[in-house]
Here is the input.
Amino acid sequence: MGMVRKIILGIVVLLCVLLIGGLAYYQFYFLRLPARNIPHQANLFVSPANGRVASVTHWNADSLVITKGNWGAIKVLAEDVGQSGTLVAITLNLANVHFQRAPIKGTYLGSTYKKGAFKNALKHENQYGLRFENEHNQYLFKTQKGSIYKVVQIAGFAARRIVDYIQGQPNTPVEQGKVIGLMKLGSQVAVLLPENAEVLVKKGDILIDGETPLAIEK
Here is the structure.
């Protein structure tokens, strides 16, 4: 009986250590918000997220229709961005910073939250490399030059909460690098850039939120 008690006690201690370690990782590492060197350049889009570029794809309003899932057809509203442009898909892992930042100085026009599935973000069925049938939140912005673009937070298998930090009134000014949201655990971010944006990244590039140049507004 003494040996059994020791084994049980050892298991309990191990579970407590794992639990405390997991909570410490989540609170002090996963939720970290490091300072970034924001360039504050008027015509430069910086990455809104820390992660890896999954795809860089030209889109138009007719082709940007995402596959159907259990929640029905979920479509990114391309018509409020323009008729064509470039979509940059960014995949985040558990080691990445999960706060999102505004790519460029301009105006916040509003956000749209959509319920959806929580499918594995690493597996997808479209050329954009994204799970748009998953729960997601869309931020619509306008640059100082009047270009419309969108940042979309997309949940993954483990991401069960999307936080919108702006939640302001339409036409609210937003500074480049401002924290706009948070996704808890693994997830994706999509940026729908207008036609007049020259993209500076390629598939496989590692991006730092608020710092890495993403595109130049022409």
Q: What stands out?
A: The longest strand covers residues 51-60. The first helix runs from residue 2 to 30.
